[in-house]
Amino acid sequence: EDVQDEESLYLARITEESENLRAKMAKAGDSDDDEESDDDEIEEELGFESPLNDIDPYVAFKYALTALQMVNAPVYQAATTSLTPEQTTALMEHMARAEAAEREQGTAS
Q: 47: which DSSP letter?
């Protein structure tokens, strides 16, 4: 009984969402002004500056992995020894990219 109730509720929600989406799409098709508004929103989003923009993810990953190696060597060892050759190559490439980014940041400062 509970399973049927949950399934019925789920199907009702999907139907409602589908109807809402159709209504939004029909409304968007009727008005060209909405397209201009959407373009303005995209331009605003592109101009947004986040504090995370200054953080290089490869450098952050390298720092995290190095910290793990220093703080918990057995876990680091277990994590890195179980990698496939392809994963090991990818890890080395990411570390090299992090080092290159660090050098670039060092010369940019």
A: T
At 7-39, the pLDDT tens digits run 788 788 888 888 888 888 888 766 555 555 666
Same domain for 97 and 55, yes or no, is yes
Global pTM value: 0.52
Q: Are residues 86 and 37 in the same domain?
A: no
What is the residue range of 101's domain? 51-108
Same domain, 56 and 94: yes
Backbone angles phi, psi at 53, to 5 degrees: -60, -30
For every residue of 64-76, which 3-state class applies, written as one string? HHHHHHHHCHHHH
DSSP structural state of residue 31? -
Beta carbons within 10 angstroms of residue 98's beta carbon = 20
